[in-house]
Design brief:
Annexin V, domain 1; globular; 7 helices; 3 strands; mainly alpha
Length: 186
């Protein structure tokens, strides 16, 4: 049974103790970077490890409030984990540390107008939720290369779904033809 103190520590789980220690050190180093000590979305200071939440697929560190907005995007858009209270494996840490709030800012906010009033910790929930959705899902201010890559990924997924359905997007049947009732489709 874990003690409360153990639960409040950052740790990475692995069958290999050395790999676990490396992953734990990498995660601690990542959240200690100055760019990652403020929420990527509302810019509140993150002082206590318990305050750090991370989006694995976006590579950003956020506060608990903004983590809720990320969760509302769905796990396919933002997979949120507590740095302290959730279980981490080395692969998750590797994915996360490829990013960082500074890198994400340069990609997701590249085309943000200079006059845009960024949210802060006092921003109301409705505006904050819209900002997070515009930033990460709609890619409203993102680097054009990211927007193109995401559009290509979506098209590829759609084509794969059609191919998996065996239709290629068309039914392949003559209009007005009666469906076969036999088990072999003839």
């Amino acid at each position: 049974s874990e003690t409360l103190q153990e639960m409040q520590e950052i740790s990475v789980l692995s069958d290999d103790p050395e790999e676990a220690a490396r992953g734990t050190a990498d995660l601690k180093r990542f959240i200690a970077l100055p760019e990652n000590c403020v929420c990527a979305d509302c810019s509140i200071d993150l002082d206590d490890p318990n305050d750090f939440w991370a989006s694995l697929n976006l590579g950003v560190v956020v506060c608990v409030r903004c983590a809720g907005f990320h969760r509302s995007l769905g796990a396919s858009n933002s997979r949120i984990k507590s740095v302290v209270y959730d279980k981490w494996d080395p692969g998750m840490v590797e994915r996360l540390v490829e990013g960082g709030n500074g890198k994400a800012r340069s990609v997701y906010l590249e085309r943000l107008p200079k006059a845009y009033n960024l949210p802060d910790p006092e921003t109301d929930d409705e505006r904050m939720r819209a900002f997070v959705r515009n930033k990460y899902v709609r890619l409203k201010w993102a680097d054009p290369a990211l927007r193109e890559a995401k559009a290509a990924e979506a098209a590829e997924r759609a084509a794969s779904r059609r191919a998996a359905a065996g239709t290629g997007g068309r039914s392949g049947k003559r209009a007005g033809a009666m469906a076969s009732l036999s088990s072999d489709g003839v």
